[in-house]
Amino acid sequence: MTAAATPSRFRENIAAALGDERLRGLSPHVQSLIAARAEAAARLPEFEALRDSARAIKDHALAHLDLYLEAFERKATEAGGQVHYARDAAEATATIVDLCKAHGAKTVVKGKSMVSEEIGLNAALDRAGIAAVETDLGEYVVQLREERPSHIIAPAIHLTRKDYEAAFRRAHRDLPADRDLSQPERLLAEARAILRAKFLAADVGITGANFLVAETGAAIVVTNEGNGDLCQVLPKVHIVVASIEKVVPTLNDVAQILRVLARSATGQGMAVYTTAAVGPRRPGDPDGPEEWHVVLVDNGRSAMLGGPFRDMLRCIRCGACMNHCPVYETIGGLAYGWIYAGPMGAVLTPSLIGVAEGGALATASTLCGRCEAACPMRIPLPALLRQWRERAFARALTPAGERFALGLWAFFAKRPALYRLTTGLATRALALVGRARGRFSWLPFASGWTRSRDLAAPQGATFQSRWRAKSGRVK
Amino acid sequence: MAAETEKPPIRVGLFVTCLVDLMRPSVGFAAVKLLEDAGCEVVVPSQSCCGQPAFNSGDRATARAIALKTIDAFAGCDYVVAPSGSCAGMLAKHYPELFADEPELLRKAAAFADKCWELTSFLVDRLGVTAVAARCEGVAAYHDSCAGLREMGVKSQPRALLASVEGLRLVELQDGEACCGFGGVFSVKHGALSGPIVERKAADVAATGADTLIAGDLGCLMNIAGRLQRQGRAVKARHVAEVLAGVSDEPPIGEAAARVKP
Questions:
Q1: Between chain A and chain B, how many beta carbons pairs sit less than 8 Å apart?
Q2: pLDDT tens, position by position, A312-348
Q3: B62-65 own/partner pairs: CB under 8 Å, 24+ apart
């Protein structure tokens, strides 16, 4: 997948993804995540009740977002932190770049943060001459490859061990060329050694946040690698960048949502590291940053609050919807062309960049509903995808050929008597042609179907005509 | 039979569904037989489509117009039963959504939705049918269609009824809750993308060793059977209604009749 993939070129991206042999390896990964989630949910009798409770917590927080954001700011400030508001990506990156410049930063270490991807933070830092280093292993490889993450919790799920090896050999040129990187452990050891030096050299650490706690002013980060913790405590300055809907009222609320987060994501009861940070290092603290900043990013969220896509703001970025999506399983995340993939990406992307640019993502779904069934926050993803289709249709963004076909079909479907007559004639004709074999390998106007499967021939006369002939009971 | 009861029989309107109407009428007649055997009076009002292609393509106005026609067509029925989880889901779950801002029509759509059922769940959950008198030799994999499973709660009902079919042994798919990639218009509009999805389902079916594939939705069946046939796999695909009604004189989906009449 090229870096030029954008949501508006979704069709081309899909075609490219279908031709990418490497993506055939994605299926076993998501299948194991599906199984792990199912097991974790089955082990917890109250799992369904926890989902309801998690949804209620977020709905409440969203209904009073202004209050909780102010409360969070107050508490974070009391703890010695500095809170910055950013209306959009430009304001957010400018704030962060300025903070880095103020400390003369040359190197920044980053914990995995989707909102930092969304605002284009690494590119902005790069333009300012500051090197940003991703420290989540998957995210690090993706950065070396100049790609985007293809999954919100497993950014390099589309890559193989060989891809890691190639990226490391290209990037780590001062290491011996004949070193053995044939085992995952070797790759891990090499990444660890490289990243450890970056952690120690970094002037600023940047992390995202899974939650912001209004009650205490804390930012909570959940990781499996511990890299987020090192980003928070080693550099002199720690900057949290988080979108505004991450705020929840209390630590107790966090504890409840945590019970569904890791289970939905990977099937773990808890992620390996759950770390709360609030304020800079206090006198007597063994470690911690000298300055602690929180950059609260709106970038389209407050506009979503008052509209039909508000439910999407409950999302806790667990990735269950993409794991359970047959389309994601087939094309991977990069084909979605922007930051967020799978069902949540197809709903969120047009909310953030507009339906003209992002609306195409909503077309590629069977609306099978497995995402909604797996979503810990019970976000009605299929209904929201359909909402985008309605908006695209209303704005005539749907392709002309499709609109014509739909219009023609609708003309008959709205007139049952005429419909019975025409479909009766058509099916008889098709049945006559197809009856020797019982099916077709190719039919005009059905090549989308017949390229990968046969099409059963109709039995002959329609049910309605047979029923009427038999009993005269069709009115 | 319900002949002893004093009350008039339950009047069921068969929502036959476009695919059954056009492609495989034998499913419709099988559904009629099952409903009549259970003591229902079956009527078939003049009908077209449930409107799902429009609804899922974002053409709400057309979906709404079709919904109004359908609701009126079935006005005289106690229940509306469809041999499809997908179409039943459209009638029972999505029709009310179409009138969310029109209180009077919403009441009408909600009352209509309340009387709409998927066939096997109507037989089991509403009528209390526990067994059928049918015979079908073979090992069958049952595919749960997405809307049936997740919108209409259809999972145990077809299995319970199929368990009473003589000679039939049911096996489960490895990833039974996965979509087959049909998705209505999706399978044509995104045909290339639909291909690998149905391939995974076909491989799952083949891995069970079943000689028969049964499902409650003709769309999924045509999709999976079409893929199995393209690969030359000898799995017979039949709609659950046909198996339960003991229909054996029709060739399986996508197969030619043994002897073609001159």
A1: 225
A2: 999 999 999 999 999 999 999 999 999 999 999 999 9
A3: B62/A406, B62/A410, B62/A413, B62/A414, B63/B98, B64/B98, B64/B99, B65/A410, B65/A414
Phi-psi region of A163 (alpha: psi -120 to 50; beta: other; left: phi over 0): alpha
CB contact under 8 A, B21 and A462: yes
Give the residue from A452, A470, A474 with the most B CB atoms within 10 Å of its CB, the best one to mutate: A452
* Chain B neighbors of A10, CB-CB under 8 A: none
With H, G, I as helix, E, B as strand and everything else as coil, classify residue B168.
strand
The domain spans of chain B are 2-124, 131-244
Decide if A455 touches B, using CB distance below 8 A: yes
* A433–chain B Cβ distance below 8 A for any pair: no
Tell me the domains of chain A and their CATH numbers. Answer: 44-299 (3.40.50.10420), 400-471 (no CATH)
Bridge-based pairing state of the strands B166-171 and B212-215: unpaired
Q: Measured between CB atoms, does A330 come within 8 Å of chain B?
A: yes
Give the right CATH number for B2-124 from 2.60.120, 1.10.12, 3.40.50, 1.20.1050: 1.20.1050
End-to-end alpha-carbon separation of chain B, Å?
40
Count of alpha carbons within 13 Å of A113, Cβ hemisphere only?
A: 33
Task: Indicate the residue of B24, B44, B58 with minimum beta-carbon distance to A398.
Answer: B58
**ipTM of model:** 0.94
Q: Per residue in A423-458, pLDDT tens?
A: 888 888 888 888 889 999 988 778 889 999 999 999
Could you report the per-residue pLDDT of A244-274, keeping only the tens digit for each?
999 999 999 999 999 999 999 999 999 999 9
A304 to chain B, minimum CA–CA distance in Å? Answer: 20
Closest in B51, B151, B229 to A369, CB measured: B151
- How sure is the predictor about A1, in pLDDT bands with cuts at 50, 70 and 90? very low
List the single residue in B44, B60, B230 with the smallest CB-CB distance to A390: B60
Tell whether A177 lies on the interface with B, counting CB pairs under 8 A.
no
Asked if the Cβ–Cβ distance from A419 to B48 is below 8 Å, we say: yes
B131-244 — its CATH code? Answer: 3.40.50.11810
